[in-house]
């Protein structure tokens, strides 16, 4: 690791993680059943090497990413850097069962004891490691039996296979409900968040207004702040929509926001990606950004966002532009 990146504690844990994390979803190359080829494996190692050089010490995974291939190819980094495991943090997720494991079934969610235990074993095997630093439940399962989750978490924790636990895409009420049964704290909640995906913030702003924006996530951001649960932003680069990805007839607010991002980047002498990351980090909740680009230049561009302080006015300019609607 070359560059020194700012760090923060992840929730109430002792993990000192970088403010920008790398999201390994695309590393496996494709979502089909074909095994990962040499080129995909070499490319994955090159991408991880770039992220490490930028100072990133936190790597996000899920059992399902590229049907398990993303975790598998990630393990190629151990050959290059055998002592790396103790210096970085690995997070994976479980709980989504895509239709490909049984073509007669649609994608569904599964927080049963058996599924959680099976999933973690699979992740450990593919990642070629003895433990995960963090395990997240990927998307809320309406059939959750919290006692089963608690039993799985106890066993995983006691066996040393998982150090810390969290959730993803969950509301405050869902976290509070689950936490009631768990003996380990929830330390993270990973949610989609970027300049043009701001439901978490909008809820408080449009409360009691005649406004269709109300997403009813019931104070999730406040709950996470209050309980020291780190919010992790997936999709922080808005998939390139604001930094030059070619799209047919973009909505007016997307074009306006892209122009503003480019202007601010020019003024500050940084990249547009850096502005998007700095916008997320300006929020006092200390949100960790999980970038998922496979383009090594874009990884470096996004990492420039670490250490850039947006002013209150700059933050609001981007927020209002991204909403495509003035404040009430
Ligand atoms: N918890 C969840 O439910 C959930 C859901 C989705 C993702 N995640 C996690 O979050 C990570 C990041 O998510 P994300 O991939 O949505 O985030 P992102 O970093 O906002 O977007 C990355 C994607 O945008 C593309 N992109 C960015 N800038 C571009 C540009 N200027 N031109 C063209 N394409 C551009 C990238 O393509 P290139 O690769 O070509 O740069 C890549 O496909 C994932 O890897 C995963 O770990 C979690």
Q: Would you write up a description of this structure?
A:
This protein has helices at 38-53, 69-74, 77-80, 113-127, 146-158, 172-181, 199-205, 220-226, 252-268, 272-282, 296-303, 312-323; strands at 7-9, 16-18, 20-23, 58-60, 89-94, 96-97, 108-109, 132-137, 162-168, 186-192, 230-234, 288-291. By secondary structure, it is an alpha/beta fold. The protein has a single domain (7-241, 280-308), classed as NADP-dependent oxidoreductase domain (TIM Barrel), CATH 3.20.20. The strands form 3 sheets. Strands 3-4-5-8-9-10-11-12 form an 8-stranded parallel beta barrel, surrounded by 5 helices. It has a two-stranded antiparallel ribbon with strand order 1-2. It starts with 6 loop residues before the first strand and ends in a 5-residue tail after the last helix. The model has no long low-confidence stretch (mean pLDDT 96). NADP nicotinamide-adenine-dinucleotide phosphate binds next to strand 12.
């Amino acid at each position: 690791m070359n560059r020194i990146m700012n760090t923060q504690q992840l929730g109430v844990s002792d993990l000192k993680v970088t403010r920008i994390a790398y999201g390994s979803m695309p590393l496996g190359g494709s979502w089909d059943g074909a095994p990962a080829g040499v080129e995909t494996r070499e490319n994955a190692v090159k991408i991880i090497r770039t992220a490490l050089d930028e100072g990133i010490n936190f790597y996000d995974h899920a059992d399902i990413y590229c049907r398990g291939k993303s975790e598998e190819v990630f393990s190629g980094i151990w050959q290059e850097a055998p002592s790396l495991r103790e210096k970085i943090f690995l997070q994976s997720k479980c709980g989504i069962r895509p239709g490909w494991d049984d073509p007669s079934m649609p994608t569904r969610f599964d927080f049963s004891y058996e599924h959680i235990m099976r999933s973690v074993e699979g992740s450990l095997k593919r990642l070629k490691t003895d433990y995960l630093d963090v395990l997240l439940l990927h998307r809320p399962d309406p059939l959750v039996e919290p006692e089963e989750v608690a039993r799985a978490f106890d066993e995983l924790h006691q066996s040393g296979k998982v150090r810390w636990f969290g959730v993803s895409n969950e509301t405050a009420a869902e976290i509070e409900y689950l936490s009631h049964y768990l003996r380990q704290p929830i330390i993270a909640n990973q949610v989609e968040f970027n300049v043009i995906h701001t439901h978490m913030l909008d809820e408080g702003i449009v409360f009691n207004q005649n406004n269709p924006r109300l997403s009813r996530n019931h104070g999730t951001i406040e709950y996470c702040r209050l309980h020291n649960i780190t919010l992790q932003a997936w999709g922080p680069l808005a998939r390139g929509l604001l930094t030059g990805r070619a799209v047919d007839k973009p909505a007016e607010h997307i074009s306006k926001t892209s122009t503003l991002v480019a202007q601010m980047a020019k003024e500050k002498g940084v990249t547009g990606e850096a502005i998007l990351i700095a916008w997320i980090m300006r929020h006092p909740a200390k949100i960790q950004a999980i970038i998922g680009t496979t383009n090594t230049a874009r990884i470096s561009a996004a990492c420039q966002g670490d250490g850039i302080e947006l002013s209150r006015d700059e933050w609001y300019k981007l927020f209002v532009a991204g909403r495509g609607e003035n404040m009430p």
